[in-house]
Amino acid sequence: MAETVDVVVVGMGPGGEELAGRLAESGLAVVGIDARLVGGECPYYGCVPSKMMIRAAGSLAEARRVPALAGRSEVMPDYTPVARRIREEATDTWDDKVAVDRFTSKGGRFVRGSGRLTGPRTVRVGEQEFTASRAIVLNTGTEPAIPPVPGLAGTPYWTNREAVATETVPSSLIVLGAGAIGLELAQAFARFGSAVSVVEVADRILPLEEPEASGVVAGVLTAEGLQLHTGAPAERVSHDGTGFTVSLADTQLRAERLLVATGRRTDLAGLGLAAIGLDTERKFLDPDDRMRIAVEDVARGASGEGGRQVGVYAIGDITGKGAFTHVSMYQAAIAARDILGEDGPPAEYHAVPRVTFTDPEVGAVGLTEIQARERGIDVRTAVAELPNSARGWIHKAGNEGLIKLVEDADRGVLVGATAVGPSGGEVLAGLAVAVHAEVPTGRLRQLIYAYPTFHRAIEDALGRLR
Ligand SMILES: Cc1cc2nc3c(=O)[nH]c(=O)nc-3n(C[C@H](O)[C@H](O)[C@H](O)COP(=O)(O)OP(=O)(O)OC[C@H]3O[C@@H](n4cnc5c(N)ncnc54)[C@H](O)[C@@H]3O)c2cc1C
Ligand SMILES: NC(=O)c1ccc[n+]([C@@H]2O[C@H](COP(=O)([O-])OP(=O)(O)OC[C@H]3O[C@@H](n4cnc5c(N)ncnc54)[C@H](O)[C@@H]3O)[C@@H](O)[C@H]2O)c1
């Protein structure tokens, strides 16, 4: 017999964990279900451990810049503190007790297992079934997508999960995929001494970002000794017990380890979507601007119960609105408000920010030039090179970067912007405000830009839009 609670949260990624805790604190009876670790990919296998690796690798890179700026330096990388930090500080050796306790101390109830919809108001997990009187929230995230390259299946390749858990740096590494995951990890391992080759099927690295950004990052990575193979589909992979061979059309690469970072896949087939009348083969769920994918009117029963709507909500990577922790958290806040019956602005996605934490960082918001043109926008663009700015020139070693602006010329507002540079993700903040609030570019030109900052290059780029 199903047990009735107010809310059931299936999958507790960053958004699900936040929402479940908030609703429990509000006094609702909340059951949170996760098949693996509460908090999801970000704290255990994604953002947090990878950024610890990147922070450490960045310190090595800065030390290597000393000869250009301040004398001599000798750099002897040691991965031990990084692996220890990931194990002890970030992941508690991949144990989520702290996160589970945080949720239960707010009044929530946690069930470990794989949840599945059995009706518009019911979820089954193992032998238990729960009926939700207010809402079901789906936040089941993504898994690494493994491409069908002949020979790959069955080899001991890494995904991001094994890569962040490693205790040692491989002597050599092939990375399949030059998106955010591939490049962030490729550069970090290379800075610790691994001989890294990157294989990307598209004709440039970071193919979803501005071509100018790809160009800057490619230049830096090549200068740091990484081998970049673009427009180069892997034709075959093999493993001989000691290392990997990856065959490209015109060459063969060999390395101790192979990291597959070719994107992510949702797994909606096992979620029981047919129970709410949705196609189970779909890749993403498409929630409305309050994050609802289904709503059922519950008639008021004889006991006086019911008489309200019960919604099924979807948040996070499964919505296809940007596979980022900040999107998952943003959507969680909207869904939580809706479930609690609170007013608030609907979801909007015209200014989703994203940062690839390579060095230089690639911060971007809104549309790229190509996306804007595809939407029929009358586009004006401008690029300002960071090394030509006062701050870039002073910074010298490690100053590679640029600002690119994409303006809707008819409306006179920015619809997209990219900040590549040593602090590209931080410089992005100002550009995100401009795109989000649709600040007229004429007004942006009137702003006083502090001297000598990296963000002063925005003023230079604005001047070139004219
Ligand atoms: C290496 C790496 C680095 C990244 N770096 C960044 C970064 O710097 N910044 C950023 O914003 N994003 C980053 N991301 C992306 C970020 O991790 C995700 O966007 C984020 O985790 C949000 O995902 P989510 O909320 O959809 O759920 P996820 O984090 O994917 O969690 C989903 C949860 O649902 C559980 N689950 C799945 N199916 C079921 C089921 N049927 N029943 C019960 N539980 C289930 C899973 O066990 C998991 O715990 C990175 C990702 C990776 C892999
Ligand atoms: N800093 C961040 O915010 C951050 C960091 C890492 C990941 N993420 C999120 O995680 C998501 C997944 O990251 P990702 O890097 O795996 O995916 P991605 O889609 O960004 O990049 C995958 C890359 O692999 C390439 N590719 C696909 N098949 C291939 C093949 N067979 N051989 C060679 N290359 C192939 C694609 O062309 C693409 O460039 C991203 O969309 C991002 O939202 C965010």
TrEMBL record:
Residues noted as binding FAD in the record, renumbered to the chain: K51, G115, D317
Transmembrane segments: none
Cofactor binding, note field: Binds 1 FAD per subunit.
Keywords in alphabetical order: FAD, Flavoprotein, NAD, Nucleotide-binding, Pyruvate
Essential cofactor(s): FAD
Keyword Nucleus part of the UniProt annotation: no
Keyword Methyltransferase: no
FAD/NAD(P)-binding domain sequence ranges: 6-332
InterPro entries per record: FAD/NAD-bd_sf, FAD/NAD-binding_dom, FAD/NAD-linked_Rdtase_dimer_sf, Pyr_nuc-diS_OxRdtase, Pyr_nucl-diS_OxRdtase_dimer
Residue ranges of every copy of the Pyridine nucleotide-disulphide oxidoreductase dimerisation domain listed in the record: 352-461
Residues that bind NAD(+): G177, A178, G179, A180, I181, G182, L183, E184, E200, G263
Example of a GO MF term: NAD(P)H dehydrogenase (quinone) activity
Cysteine disulfide partners in this protein: C42-C47
Protein family according to the UniProt entry: Belongs to the class-I pyridine nucleotide-disulfide oxidoreductase family.
Stored PANTHER family: MERCURIC REDUCTASE
Protein's name according to its UniProt entry: Pyruvate/2-oxoglutarate dehydrogenase complex dihydrolipoamide dehydrogenase (E3) component
